[in-house]
Every structure is written in C-alpha cells, then in structure tokens.
Amino acid sequence: xxxxxxxxxxxxxxxxxxxxxxxxxxxxxxxxxxxxxxxxxxxxxxxxxxxxxxxxxxxxxxxxxxxxxxxxxxxxxxxxxxxxxxxxxxxxxxxxxxxxxxxxxxxxxxxxxxxxxxxxxxxxxxxxxxxxxxxxxxxxxxxxxxxxxxxxxxxxxxxxxxxxxxxxxxxxxxxxxxxxxxxxxxxxxxxxxxxxxxxxxxxxxxxxxxxxxxxxxxxxxxxxxxxxxxxxxxxxxxxxxxxxxxxxxxxxxxxxxxxxxxxxxxxxxxxxxxxxxxxxxxxxxxxxxxxxxxxxxxxxxxxxxxxxxxxxxxxxxxxxxxxxxxxxxxxxxxxxxxxxxxxxxxxxxxxxxxxxxxxxxxxxxxxxxxxxxxxxxxxxxxxxxxxxxxxxxxxxxxxxxxxxxxxxxxxxxxxxxxxxxxxxxxxxxxxxxxxxxxxxxxxxxxxxxxxxxxxxxxxxxxxxxxxxxxxxxxxxxxxxxxxxxxxxxxxxxxxxxxxxxxxxxxxxxxxxxxxxxxxxxxxxxxxxxx
Length: 530
Fold this sequence. Notes:
This protein has helices spanning 10-13, 101-105, 111-116, 157-165, 177-191, 203-214, 235-258, 260-263, 269-282, 309-315, 321-336, 344-352, 359-371, 377-383, 390-402, 412-421, 426-436, 476-484, 504-516; strands at residues 52-59, 69-77, 85-90, 117-122, 196-202, 219-227, 462-466, 487-491, 523-524. Helix 18 (476-484) links the parallel strand 7 and strand 8. A nine-stranded mixed sheet has the order 1-2-4-3-5-6-7-8-9, with helices on both faces. The chain is built from 19 helices and nine strands. By secondary structure, the protein is an alpha/beta fold. The two termini are 21 Å apart.
C-alpha cells in the first residue's frame, strides 16, 4: 500500500537520507547460500496457513559487497499441486510489512495460485525482521512518540545521520528502492531459481519496475497493481494524492447519501459532507474539516447563507455554495485556533477512500458517532486497519527522501498558509505543503531513481489501474505502462489494489497472463461491493 502523508504528521513521515559514495555494482561477493526454511518469527505471520520462513544474508551496501551484511526474513507458502513457478509479492508502502502478505490473503486470492505457485514475500530492509532501521535519540534530535528513535522528518541532516549511524554506520544511506530491488535478486538466487514472477501493489509497483529495469533476464511474469507514476517520484506523487483523495471523498459522500435510509447522514452528498464536517470539528479536527463541498444538487434547497466577510468586502456577495463553504471553514478555523489533530473520523475516512470494502462499515461508524459523539470505537478500528509497525514510518521517510527526484518549492508554504487562513480546501493546502519539500527539510537525496525500462523483458508486464484510485492516481497507470512497455487494464471505480478483490474479470485476466503471458482485456468494471 502506498502511504499517504497526513499533516502535521506528514511533515514527519516523508523524510530521510544521506550520501552514498561510489557507484552501485551488480554483482555479489559470493554466491548466495541456499535458503533454509523453517519456523517464522513470533507473531510475524498468520498461523495455520502453512507459512515457513528463512533468513537471508545480503550486503548492506551493494557498492561494498564484501563489507557489512544485513539479514532479511523471507516467507514461503509452497504450491499444493503441480508447481509452475515462484511469485514474489510486495504490498507497498514504502514501509509496509511484507512477510505476511500471502497468508493474510489466502481466502481472497484465486485458488489457482495456491495450487501452482510457491508464494514468496520478502520483508524489506529496514523493517522489523529485516535488520530494523534504528536511530538512537540524541540531545540535538527530537524523539519520536516511541521515545527510542529520532524523528527523520524536516530535521538537520547531519544530526539525524549521526543518530542513525550510532546503531549501524552507513545503513540509513542504503534504504532505497534500488537496494531493496537488489535484495530481491539476492533472495531469488538463494531460492535457487533462474526467474521469478512478481506481484506488486502501490509502491510495490515501483519496486517491481526497478527490479525489472535492473534484472530483466530474471523476470518471468510481472503484475503491477495500482501504479506509482515514475515521473512523480516522490513529492509530486504525494501531492497528486490530495487531488485524487478529494474526488474519492465526494464519491464516498454520494454513496452514503444514496443509502440515507440505512445511515441517516443526509440524502445528498452535500448534506453528508456537512454532517462529516460537523463531526470532524466536534472531535477537534480543525482545518482537516476544511474541504470544498461536493457539488450541490436540486435536492439541496437554498437556505440563508452566512456572509463571507472577506469576499464580500472585496468582491461582493455572490450567493454561491462555494462561498458559503469558505465562510464556514473560516469560522471553524477561527473557533478552533487552527487545530489540526488527526481525529478518529479523519483517520477512518482516509482508510475508507482506499477501497469501497470499507464504505458500509465506515458509514455505520459515522452514523454511530452522529448519534453518540463519544462512540468512536468503530472509527478507531477502521483507522487501525492500515496501521504499521513504527519502523515502517522510518523506512517510508528514508526511501522517499533518499531518492526524491522532484525539487521542493518553498514558496508554496506561503500559499498553503493562505489557503488555510482563508478557509480554503485543506487538500489544496496539503498538496502545496507536500510540493514545498518541507517534509524532508535540509535532507537532500542520496541517489537518483533508477531509470525505468522494460525493453529487455521477455514478457510484457501486466498493469492494473483503478480510474479513481485516491492513493495512486490514475495517471500513474499509463505513465508506468509507457515506461516499462506494459499492457494496461483500466478498472472502473477507485479501489486501491484491484487483484484478489473478488472481481472475476480482473482475477481471470491476471491468471490468464500468469499462464500464457497474454493480456486479453483492457478494461474491467469495479469489484462488486461485498
């Protein structure tokens, strides 16, 4: 899953990195030893799914293959029947745990995978069970909420590197997509196979594309689901999430309105939005509630609109829904003093925009909070559905700042502040804050992203992209398909991750591709709402 920054915490979770000296080499010091599979670390995988694990030793820095080494944990679920090959998966992030990927999805993935493929998941470097990235707190660097690691976001690069190097010198510099892709090839060699198939979702699509660009002869089939735009790595990718996220929120509000008899939150998207804004503000959400309203419909009878004082003084009163919304936002901002806490409703809403699977439970949870503002138990449960281990936030920061290829534009901070102060759309402000580059502070990239190409692949990759995906906006699908010369299937709706969601058209297309290398469709409807 592609992580999305949230403010103010987003200004922390985008960060990292330093300088790698020397060029990256493609070889290794010696042939990787064979993987020996046995028990998995405690609480690392779902029990009863036949998962075994192995620990693989790889170079910490591929520019120095004879130097320090790190250990990665790899999980495997063996094929139950006639084995056709090996599929390696990555769920995204960057910074998402991968070890339990297949075990968690056995019930939702097509049974054909169980029978014919060894399913492999590699825990990415820097995460728990993969030589965790540890940065001891120092007096000059702020402590994280956990108290044992520094904040990697927006701080002094030299201080942060010093804190991280205290645990393992030079490690922070190697937390990049390229290093992670090279780790995959070390794992491939340890598995004793010439080629692997690959399934990547969200950030996992970018990791897979980098692997294919570096090791094209080692790729059999490649499925890239919900694609990162290789031209947006990374600042613009996260900025574009804000625009896409606003559209998906409008879709969510419209769906809830269509089911107003079930949830009682309003019979138009605008009325649901107004209830959402009120609840967010009541929970202390401050300017998180500042969203431009969805379009009004004929069912939204005009009422007495509050006077937008600033705009009236300048332009006169135009009696528009947008103008009224801005004034409500401004009043809310003044009342809350600009508070921007990540409150339960906001966190749950972010999760609901990832996939329609959460829409009914989210609407029910919001309805419960509407009746009893103290009843946020279900909202917290939804918010926690995508939570990660703290090391995930550090890896996310390290990768995105280590290889960010889009220069920051600090002048946009003023634009964001102006948007907030005048009651404008919070997501526009968030996009400007991301584009400002303030998340990484003085931390400059340590490497340039690998140039994506598919010219030497023997089978064209298959790409899946939902049209209204809020985390990896649609433009990423065509852009990645062009870069890697892949075949794109456009999926309607906005689910983040289209494969293994009970969508027969998509699942059958992927299975056909894995068997034959052929892509038989270029379009599919969205998955049914279970």
